Amino acid sequence: MFFNDELEEIAKNMFETMYGSPGIGLAGAQIGINIRIATVDISVGEDASQRIILCNPEIISAEGEQKNDEGCLSIPDFSESVSRPMKMVVRALNIKVKNPD
Question: Which of 31, 34, 36 is nearest to 16 (CA)?
Fold first, then answer.
């Protein structure tokens, strides 16, 4: 999958939805989009350079563990303690990879 104008618009809308909640990450599946795309911004909109768009993400490696309370934009007013890797390497396409045609 390559980025095109339609996918770029989806990512833009995902950031707006994510910031409106507010959140730091949103997957397409959380909002009924049946494509493998996720938006991430740990600055919650404060620093545009922190925006990450991942398309067709694949976990390459993960190590360590950390536990934090997390909410979910799909389930408002709910949070739970979640274990996540301390460090993770992910391979994905980003917005800079455009369809060559």
Answer: 31
Place of tokens 């563990």: 65
**Residue 95 per-residue DSSP state:** T
Classify each residue of 55-84 as buried b or exposed e, where b means 16 or more C-beta atoms within 10 Å of its C-beta.
beeeeeeeeeeeeeeebbbeeeeeeeeeee
Structural contact between residues 9 and 96, judged by C-beta atoms closer than 8 angstroms: no
Residues 18-39 have a mean pLDDT of 91
pLDDT tens-digit map of 36-89: 999 999 998 999 889 999 999 999 999 999 999 988 877 888 899 999 999 999
Whole-Å CA distances, 28 to 23, 37, 46 = 14, 5, 22
State both tokens at 33: 């989009």
Q: Which amino acid is at 4?
A: N
Cα–Cα distance, 61 to 1 (Å, whole number): 22
